[in-house]
Amino acid sequence: MRGYAAHASTVPVLRAEAATTLAQGAVIPAHPLALTADRTLDERRQRALTRYYLDAGAGGLAVGVHTTQFEIRDPEHALFEPVLALAAEEMDARADAGVVRIAGVAGDTAQAVAEAELARSLGYDAVLVSPRVAGADDRALLDRARAVGEVLPIVGFYLQTAIGGPVLDREFWREFAAIPAVVAVKAAPFDRYRTLELVRGVAASGRADEIALYTGNDDAIVADLLSEFHVESPDGPRTLRFVGGLLGQWAVGTKAAVDLLARARTAMEGDAVAYRELGLVASDMVDVNQAVFDPGNDFHGVIAGVHELLRQQGLLEGTWCLDPAEGLSPGQAEEIRRVRLAYPDLNDDAFIAEHLEAWLA
Fold first, then answer.
1. What is each CA distance from 59 to 97, 104, 244, 246, 314, in whole angstroms?
2. For 128-168, how does the pLDDT look when each residue is reduced to its tens digit (9 = 90+)?
3. End-to-end CA distance of the chain, in Å?
4. What's the rounded Cα separation, in Å, for the pair 184 and 69?
5. Contacts of 360 (CB under 8 A, 6+ apart)
6. Average pLDDT of the chain, as a whole number
7. Is the pLDDT of residue 2 over 80?
8. Residue 9: is its pLDDT beyond 60?
9. To bridge 144 with a disulfide, which of 11, 13, 109, 323 should be the other Cys (CB 3.0-4.6 Å)?
10. Do residues 35 and 321 make contact, with C-beta atoms less than 8 angstroms apart?
11. d(CA 113, CA 149)
12. How do residues 231-249 score in pLDDT, each as one tens digit?
C-alpha cells in the first residue's frame, strides 16, 4: 500500500517523501475533468492534463475536488474511481516519490470514509475533506473528519460561502487542527478576516508545527504567500506562513506558478527585488483570476473558465461540465483570451505548445 503507513495508535501518517514536500511547500493544482461533447470522460485529455502538471513541476495533485466537479460522484456518471485511478496511473509512471497525492472526499461520514478507503487503495497520500455537507453543523463536521482521519491523513478545507462552504470560526479550526491525522489546511474562504481566523485556530491547537498551511484563496495568492501571521499559541506568540498553494487557479499556468512560489520563498528570505517584483505580479494574478473564476457572476463560470483557458491552449477540446447548466458567462471567453495574451509570463502558452503533442500521445 503506497499511500500511507500507520502507527500502532491507528493514526495514519504520510510517506516520508510526501511529508517533506507538504511541509516545505508546493504547487498543488486542483485537477480539472476532461469531457467529450457528450459529457463522457475524455481519457486521453484527462491523462494529458496530469502529464502537464507533473512536467510543469507541481509538487502534488488534488483530484476529485471542486475543480474536478463534485458531480463525478453521481451514480449516472460514476466517475470518481476512474478519475482517481487515471491520475494515480500517471503519477506512478511519471512522478517522483516527493509528489503528494491528494484525493478529495465529500458527502456524509459514511460516504467520505468510503471515498477515503478507495483513495487509500489507489495509493493516495491524503484526503482533502470538503466542508460542504447538507445539514451538518460544526460538531458533525469534526466527527466526520475524525472518522476519515482513521483512514488517511487529512487536509482541511475552508471553502468559500459563494459555492456552498459554511462559515467556520476560530474555535472550529482549533478543534479541527487538534485531530492527530490533520497534516495540512487549505484556506479558501476568499475573505481576509476568515483566513486570519483559520490561522489563529491552527495556532491555538498547539499543532502548528505539524500542520502545513496552504492558500486556496485564488484571489489573493501572492498576498497569502508574502504574509506573516503573528498569532498566539499555547507556547506563546508565533509567526505562521502559508508554505504553498492548493488551487484551482493553479490548474492553469502551473509552470508559472512553480516559479512564482520559488520567488515568494526568495522574497520571504529577504530578497527585496523579488519582493517588489511579486508586488507587481499580485494585481496581474487577480486580473487573471477574475477572468477565469467569473466572480462578477457569482462564480457561475468558475469551472468552465478553467476549461476555457485550457481549451485555448489545446489541452482540452471544450468547456463541457457534467452539469449542463454550468458553462461560461457572456463575454467570459473573451476576457480569458485577453488576460492570456496580456500576461504571457503567467499562462504557460509556450511550454504547453512545446509539449502538447507528447502529452496527448
1. 10, 17, 10, 10, 23
2. 999 989 889 999 999 999 999 999 999 999 989 888 889 99
3. 30
4. 22
5. 44, 45, 48
6. 95
7. no
8. no
9. 109
10. yes
11. 9
12. 999 999 999 999 999 999 9
| pTM for the model | 0.95
Cell matching residue 346: 503567467
Q: What is the pLDDT of residues 309-351, one digit of tens each?
A: 999 999 999 999 999 999 999 999 999 999 999 999 999 999 9
d(CA 20, CA 23): 5
Cα–Cα distance, 215 to 62 (Å, whole number): 13
The candidate with the shortest Cα–Cα distance to 254, out of 69, 97, 27, is: 27
Contact (CB, 8 A) for 79 and 100: no
Residues 6 or more apart whose Cβ sits within 8 Å of residue 221: 215, 245, 247, 249, 260, 282, 285, 289
Backbone angles phi, psi at 185, to 5 degrees: -140, 135
3-state secondary structure of 121: helix
Hey, what long-range contacts does 288-292 have (CB within 8 A, 24 or more apart)? Answer: 288/249, 288/253, 288/339, 288/343, 288/346, 288/347, 289/218, 289/219, 289/221, 289/249, 290/219, 290/335, 291/332, 291/335, 291/336, 291/338, 291/339, 292/249, 292/252, 292/336, 292/339
Please report how the helices 332-342 and 302-312 are oriented relative to each other, as an axis angle in degrees rounded to 10. Answer: 50
Helix 109-121 crosses helix 138-148 at what angle (to 10 degrees)?
A: 30
Q: What is the dihedral of CA 107, 109, 112, 115, to 10 degrees?
A: -120
The answer to whether residues 313 and 45 touch, using CB atoms and an 8 Å cutoff, is: no
